[in-house]
Structures are given as C-alpha cells and as structure tokens.
Design a protein that fits this description.
With 157 residues, the protein is α+β, with helices and mostly antiparallel strands. The protein has three helices and seven strands. A hairpin with a 3-residue loop joins β4 and β5.
C-alpha cells in the first residue's frame, strides 16, 4: 500500500527541504490536508520558538497538499501567500499540526488557507494562498514539474 506522503507528492517527486524538516502527512483528500511537524532545536529562532520560516513552509505545504488532494496527478506552484503569526509555536511535547483547506478552485488556480496549531490546539499561525495547477513532466528517474521544462523547443536556426 502506498503511504499518504508518496500519494500526495506523486510520480516520485521529492521535496528535500520538506524531508529535512520532518513533516508527516496525516490527511490528504477532498480538499483537506493535515501535516504534523515536531520542530528540532535547529528549527528554532533566537527566542527558542519555532522559526517563522519553518512555520511558513509548513503552511505553504499544507495549502499545496490541500489543493493537490482534488487532483493528485497535478503539481501546484505558489503564486502568493499571506501569513499572520498569532502566538509563538513552542517546541516541546507533542507536534505542531497544520490543517490546510482548498476554499475554491478554478481550472488553473486554487485558493487555500491553513492554520498551524500547537499541541494544546491553540492557533499559532494562519495563511491564505493562491496556487497555480501545473502538469508534471516525467523526465527520467525523478519527476520534474512544468517549471523545469522548456516551454518550447529551442531553435538553432
């Protein structure tokens, strides 16, 4: 059986930065996603709380997986994202959980939101984002998205 993360990223696409952070996909279907994240000491800022960049990555990936959950064969790229930090995301027992939601979809765009909750269920950060659906192109053992492929053959004339 294919695990959720493999299903979500599809076609062998790997996101090394997401793997480095240790995100764990818990839910991926029907326009919703849930990702658990246990920040490591190296993911903290100078105040010993989860770095805002790590939280923004968690929000971005949560929104992207929520968007992709309705079309797993497609990739998505972030067009814009707005983030609000409400309270520190403290490291400690229990993981942070991000819940993403696809709010609206057109043929080419996804409008999403996500919230990061601490182990006590308190909202720490919230984001809205717009994503563009892109076709994935298989180029060999690793998949590539359409952004890495030339848009048209290059003429040598």
């Amino acid at each position: 059986m294919v695990d959720l993360w493999t299903q979500a990223v599809g076609f062998g696409v790997e996101i090394p930065f997401v793997s480095l952070l240790g995100f764990e996909l818990k839910h991926f279907e029907g326009g919703h996603s849930e990702i658990a994240y246990a920040p490591k000491p190296e993911h903290l800022n100078s105040f010993s709380v989860t770095h805002g960049g790590a939280l923004m990555t968690l929000l971005d990936v949560s929104m992207a997986t929520a968007a992709r959950s309705v079309s797993p064969e497609m990739g998505v790229v972030t067009i814009e994202m707005k983030t609000s930090f409400m309270q520190p995301a403290l490291p400690g027992p229990g993981a942070l959980v991000a819940k993403g939601e696809l709010m609206h979809r057109t043929a080419t765009m996804a409008f999403t939101q996500a919230t990061v909750f601490d182990a006590q269920g308190r909202a720490c950060a919230h984001a809205t984002g717009t994503f563009k659906f892109v076709k994935r192109l298989v180029t060999g053992p690793r998949s590539s998205n359409a952004l890495n492929a030339p848009s048209a053959p290059i003429s040598t004339d």
